[in-house]
C-alpha cells in the first residue's frame, strides 16, 4: 500500500481530486465521460505535468476492452455504464445517448499504479464491480468509500458482506446532501489541513476525518435498514402512496443518498 496515493474512480468534474491534491496526496483518477476527461486534463494540467495526478479517460469495468457508456444530456453526474441505471433514468424522462468507451479493470489499475491508501468509487450503479476487483490483491487500501445501493436492501447487504469478506470491519454511513456542511478538522487526521469548501456532488472527508462513529457489520446493516424505510416513503421507488410522499416532502423529509465508508485493521 502506498500511503500517499488515492484513487478517485468517478472523477466527474474533479471535486474530490482537487481536495485530495490539496491534502498532499498523489491521485490516480478515472473518468469515462470523454468531455469531463478533456475538461479535467485542462483544469488539472499543472498537477498532471508535475506527476501528482494521473487522469485516465476510461470506464472502470469487470473486464478490459470496450463498454457502452450512457450519457445523460445536462446531467453529467448521472453518466453510467449500468444499463439498469440508464433504463431507470429513461423511465423518469431522462433519455441517454450511448457511446463506446475503453474499459480498465481494478486489477489493471493496481498492477500499474500500486495499491492506494484510500479508494473512492462513485460510478453510478457499478461501484461493486470496483470493489470485487480488489479480490486476489496481496494488499488492499486501508480505507475506501462507495455509493451505497438504494434500490435493493438485499443488494446493500451483499455490498457490506463483500467488504467484510475482503477484510474491512469498520463502517461509516455518510449522507451526501450534508457534505457541503462538512468542515475539515484541525489539526488534520488525514494528510495536511486545508481550508476547503465542499461543493454539492463531492464525496467529502474520508478516513478518520469522515463524520460519524465507526460501526460494526451488524450495526451498519441495522442503520441501513432504517434508511431503507425512509427510501420506501420518499424515494423514487417508493412503496407508500403518493400522498404520503407529498406530505413527507412538505415536512422536509426528502430522499438522500449515502456513501459507505469502510476501513480495515492496520
Structure description:
With 266 residues, the chain is of the alpha/beta class. It has one domain: Vaccinia Virus protein VP39 (Rossmann fold, 3-Layer(aba) Sandwich), CATH 3.40.50. The protein has helices spanning 15-22, 34-43, 45-50, 83-91, 106-113, 127-132, 153-166, 217-234, 242-250, and strands spanning 2-9, 26-30, 53-56, 59-60, 65-71, 97-104, 116-121, 143-147, 170-175, 258-263. The strands form two sheets. Strands 3-2-1-7-8-10-9 form a seven-stranded mixed β-sheet, with helices on both faces. A three-stranded mixed β-sheet has the order 4-6-5. Helix 1 (15-22) links the parallel strand 1 and strand 2 (26-30). Helix 7 (153-166) runs antiparallel to helix 8 (217-234).
Amino acid at each position: 500500500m502506498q500511503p500517499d496515493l488515492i484513487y478517485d474512480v468517478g472523477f466527474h468534474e474533479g471535486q474530490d481530486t482537487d481536495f485530495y491534491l490539496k491534502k498532499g496526496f498523489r491521485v490516480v483518477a478515472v473518468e469515462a465521460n470523454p468531455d469531463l476527461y478533456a475538461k479535467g486534463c485542462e483544469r488539472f494540467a499543472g498537477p498532471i505535468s508535475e506527476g501528482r495526478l494521473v487522469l485516465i479517460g476510461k470506464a472502470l469495468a469487470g473486464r478490459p476492452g470496450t463498454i457502452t457508456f450512457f450519457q445523460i444530456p445536462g446531467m453529467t453526474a448521472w453518466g453510467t455504464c449500468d444499463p439498469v441505471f440508464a433504463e431507470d433514468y429513461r423511465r423518469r424522462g431522462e433519455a441517454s445517448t450511448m457511446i463506446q468507451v475503453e474499459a480498465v479493470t481494478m486489477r489493471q489499475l493496481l498492477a500499474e499504479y500500486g495499491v492506494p491508501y484510500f479508494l473512492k468509487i462513485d460510478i453510478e450503479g457499478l461501484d461493486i464491480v470496483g470493489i470485487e476487483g480488489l479480490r486476489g490483491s496481496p494488499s488492499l487500501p486501508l480505507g475506501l468509500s462507495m455509493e451505497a445501493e438504494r434500490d435493493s436492501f438485499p443488494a446493500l447487504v451483499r455490498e457490506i458482506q463483500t467488504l467484510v469478506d475482503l477484510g474491512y470491519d469498520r463502517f461509516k454511513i455518510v449522507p451526501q446532501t450534508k457534505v457541503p456542511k462538512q468542515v475539515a478538522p484541525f489539526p488534520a487526521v488525514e494528510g495536511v489541513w486545508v481550508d476547503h469548501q465542499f461543493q454539492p456532488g463531492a464525496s467529502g472527508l474520508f478516513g478518520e476525518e469522515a463524520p460519524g462513529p465507526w460501526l460494526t457489520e451488524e450495526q451498519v446493516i441495522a442503520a441501513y435498514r432504517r434508511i431503507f424505510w425512509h427510501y420506501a416513503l420518499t424515494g423514487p421507488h417508493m412503496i407508500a402512496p403518493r400522498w404520503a410522499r407529498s406530505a413527507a416532502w412538505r415536512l422536509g423529509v426528502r430522499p438522500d443518498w449515502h456513501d459507505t465508508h469502510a476501513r480495515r485493521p492496520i
